[in-house]
Amino acid sequence: TQLLEQSPQFLSIQEGENLTVYCNSSSVFSSLQWYRQEPGEGPVLLVTVVTGGEVKKLKRLTFQFGDARKDSSLHITAAQPGDTGLYLCAHGIHGSSNTGKLIFGQGTTLQVKP
Amino acid sequence: KAGVTQTPRYLIKTRGQQVTLSCSPISGHRSVSWYQQTPGQGLQFLFEYFSETQRNKGNFPGRFSGRQFSNSRSEMNVSTLELGDSALYLCASSSFRGTEAFFGQGTRLTVV
Fold first, then answer.
1. pLDDT digits (tens, 9 = 90+) for A23-68
2. pLDDT digit string, tens, across residues A83-103
3. B23: which of A4, A66, A67, B76 lies 20 to 30 Å off by Cα?
4. How far apart are CA B25 and CA B35, in angstroms?
């Protein structure tokens, strides 16, 4: 099993602050995904990173895939209360018969206080 | 188009009973996966069905089973419920070539 370790597990910050969440593994991945889950809801895909060194931006969120494709980070600039939620990184095997199986990290619970 | 629908949303069962959860995927999606989410273990893969066949299975005991119907709807069954089975059960659907999993809102199961 290819494990994903996320850090930190919990983060409580004030509105306007910046933060970074990390997703690490000893394994090389063909791709990594980031999801956000709000209370009472299922996870929603934010981004998929595929190429080593890739950087993707989604408004105030910046996602980076490590050069060696073993780690990824999510940086949020000027966090807002609406960013509150559980952030999950996940690895899935795509382009094969295993497309439906995702392995998730433990998640980072983010609380942004107004 | 309609999203992934899971029923029921909440369920309370007694230890030793069995339970069946239902998942209707997005129209056209043939892959349905099930996950268990608990505070201690996080999100863990249970199994995946594709075209009525189990294609992948996680590391859960045989008390957890599932099936998929010809219309891609899926059911998950847990027999002889234990207190530790209390969790949020999520199902996700994806298209054959898709790289994105679309999750339902989940079924919150409480075993007392």
1. 999 888 888 999 999 988 999 999 999 899 999 999 999 999 999 9
2. 999 999 998 754 444 557 888
3. A4
4. 14
Q: Best residue in B100, B105, B108 to probe A by mutation, most A CBs within 10 Å?
A: B100
Interface with chain A: mutation pick from B33, B43, B53, B72, highest number of A CBs within 10 Å? B43
- Token couple for A13: 């910050």
Asked if residues B91 and B26 have their Cβ atoms less than 8 Å apart, the reply is no
Instruction: Find, among B45, B111, B56, the residue nearest to B84 by Cα.
Output: B111
DSSP 8-state secondary structure symbol assigned to residue B8: -
Q: Are A68 and A24 in contact (CB under 8 A)?
A: no
Of B4, B45, B49, the CB nearest to A102: B45
